[in-house]
Amino acid sequence: MYLTKLKLENFRNYENEEINLINGINLFLGLNAQGKTNIIEAIYTGAFGKSYRTLKDNELIMFGKDYLNITLEYEKNNLNNITTFYIDNLNRKQIKNNEVKIKKIADYVGEIPIVIFSPESLDVVKGSPSKRRNFIDMICCQLSKSYIIQHQEYMKCLKMKNSMLKNDYIDDNYIYVLHEKMSKYIKYIVDYRKEIIDKLNIYAKTIQKKITEDNEEINLIYNTDFLNMTEEEIKKYLDDHLYIDKLRKIAIKGIQRDDLEIYINEQDVSKFGSQGQKRTALLTLKLSNFELLKQEKNEIPILLLDDIMSELDSKRINFLLKYIENYQSIITTTEDTFVKNIDNIKISKVSNGRLEK
Ligand SMILES: Nc1ncnc2c1ncn2[C@@H]1O[C@H](COP(=O)(O)OP(=O)(O)OP(=O)(O)O)[C@@H](O)[C@H]1O
Ligand SMILES: [Mg+2]
């Protein structure tokens, strides 16, 4: 699958713009603050029903306007498809796929598979466990509707548990009932995360070796309290740790604490990796993510690469460009010096919310 057109109306600094996309490298070139990342964000928002830069949908609306529209046209199985995303100042939101209203976002996510790679992605390697969980969840959500639903339900229970833990009087039985529900969701989520991480690890090993010319071995390990536990064991584990939750007034145990450990030559890259090793590990993770989605969905995901050429050295840039030359990518950059001998490329100049012809 690939995107053929992006239309923006009142989206951030784009008042009205229609962008034709090729099934190859779409390069958006421009100075700072012109609207390059906004293009990436618009595509992401159209595919996930929400932005990755803000939790407040109405920040996406152009200053002074009261609604926005994003239209994504794409070809899939030789058919033309269209998704529209609308939001207004009163936070009324509507997503339509081929004219059909999307009632639950779980019914839609995964329709347009996406891999995003931006300077903030480095947090996956450098940052807190939550960034790595997000990375894994983003893959799981694009692959499984039940994963999205079970995860949402778990988070609802967790919220209820945490608000009870804030009370002066805590009803243990109420929490035990929640634990019973949560243990079902945990079982499902842990099994799914484990399966995805194991598959990702296989791709990562091959890619890491290629990038580093056999010098580095990567290993991804899923860190959770609940591996290979039955639902009953999970429930007991949660019940047994309730006393700690009560002391801390917040749920300490649960899949909201899971982590993905990334090892390079048997050392934890987040603690001991050099800057370059962290960037290489991230490149490996993102390309493995791409391969995994491609394999599992039997469709080619769209690569969104926001300003990452400045983060990579020439060897890694060449590796990446070679890797993606036959797929669709949307790349933003302030410098196009790395563009040499590439055939399937369309370069557009971005200037103050407009594309220069
Ligand atoms: N809701 C909005 N309405 C109007 N303009 C906005 C809105 N939100 C952001 N902008 C403007 O969009 C501009 C471009 O943002 P964007 O992040 O796309 O820049 P960029 O080209 O990626 O720049 P850089 O190279 O620095 O990353 C910013 O100057 C910002 O002020
Ligand atoms: Mg930017």
Bound molecules: adenosine-5'-triphosphate, magnesium ion
The rough form would be described as globular
Q: How many beta-strand elements?
A: 15
CATH superfamily of the largest domain: RecF/RecN/SMC, N-terminal domain
Q: Calculate the terminal CA-CA distance, rounded to whole Å.
A: 26 Å
Secondary-structure class: alpha/beta
The biggest beta sheet is recorded as: 6 strands, antiparallel
Query: What does the radius of gyration come to?
Result: 22 Å
CATH top level of the largest domain is: Mainly Alpha
Task: Tell me the quaternary state.
Answer: single chain
SSE order, one letter for each helix or strand: EEEHEEEEEHHHHEHHEEHHEHEEE
Q: Percent of residues in beta strands? A: 15-25%
Descriptive account of the structure:
The chain is of the alpha/beta class and 357 residues long. It folds into two domains: 1-113 and 300-357, Rossmann fold (3-Layer(aba) Sandwich), CATH 3.40.50; 127-298, RecF/RecN/SMC, N-terminal domain (Glutathione S-transferase Yfyf (Class Pi), Chain A, domain 2, Up-down Bundle). 41% of the residues lie in helices and 24% in strands. The protein is globular and about 65 Å long. The protein starts with a strand and ends with a strand. The model has no long low-confidence stretch (mean pLDDT 96). The site of magnesium ion has 4 residues, from helix 1.
